[in-house]
Amino acid sequence: MIITMKYNTQEKHLVLPEYGRNIQNMVDYCVSIPDREERTKCADTIINIMGNMFPHLRDVNDFKHILWDHLAIMSNFALDIDYPYEVVKKEDMYIRPDKLPYTQDRIIYKHYGKNLENMIRKATEYEEGEHKNHLISLLANHMKKSFLTWNKEVVDNQKIFMDLEFLSKGHFVLDEDSHKLTESKDILSKKNKNLTRRQQGK
Is 164 domain-assigned? Predict the structure, then answer.
């Protein structure tokens, strides 16, 4: 007597494989029951079994509703019963999301990013004073950190000052005497320490 094995690749495609083949077979059987009342009872039983498979999710909001949605999906929306909830509709399953509009703004220096450009532009509107000077120093140091993310070598502070002057359209003119930036080696050392901590899971 020769017994032929049936491979999963020969079986019907599982719409929601997390429930397994047996649940799918139950759903298929439920759909085939001619009596509506019996179909409904069968569907209730299947829902209880599905819920018992994931007891840790019972406290999730609308857990029962989600199960009924899944039942409808696994039946390919062919299960004709009075659902206790309004279940998802087939046509809603395949709606393409709207395309996300991409900004057309050109980034002048990609290693600094658009957000920093916007912050510099906003900073030019601040009133003169200690608060503005502190903000300018923060921006310059952030530019240096961003630069070193792309270029691991030491960067000349004068390069940062020139870029800041350009991005601020001449509003912020700094020099080594008036603004001291964090040393490149200190920035790189801190980055390496943070990377090591992440790799060690600390």
Answer: yes
- What the block records as the tokens of 48 is 């209880």
Q: String of b and e for 51-81 (b: at least 16 CB within 10 Å)?
A: eeeeeeeeeeeeeeebbbbbbbbbbeeebeb
- Cα torsion for 152, 158, 161, 163, to the nearest 10°? -60
Please choose, from the candidates 112, 121, 119, the residue with its C-alpha nearest in 3D space to the C-alpha of residue 146: 112
Q: Is residue 52 part of a domain?
A: yes
- Residue 144 domain boundaries: 114-185
Report the number of distinct structural domains present in the chain: 2
Decide if pLDDT at 201 tops 80: no
Whole-number Å distance between alpha carbons of 21 and 172? 67
pLDDT digits (tens, 9 = 90+) for 130-172: 888 888 889 998 888 888 887 766 778 888 889 999 999 999 9
| Cα 33 to Cα 43: distance, rounded to the nearest angstrom | 10
Q: Residues 52-102: pLDDT tens digits?
A: 998 888 888 889 999 999 999 999 999 999 999 999 988 887 777 778 777
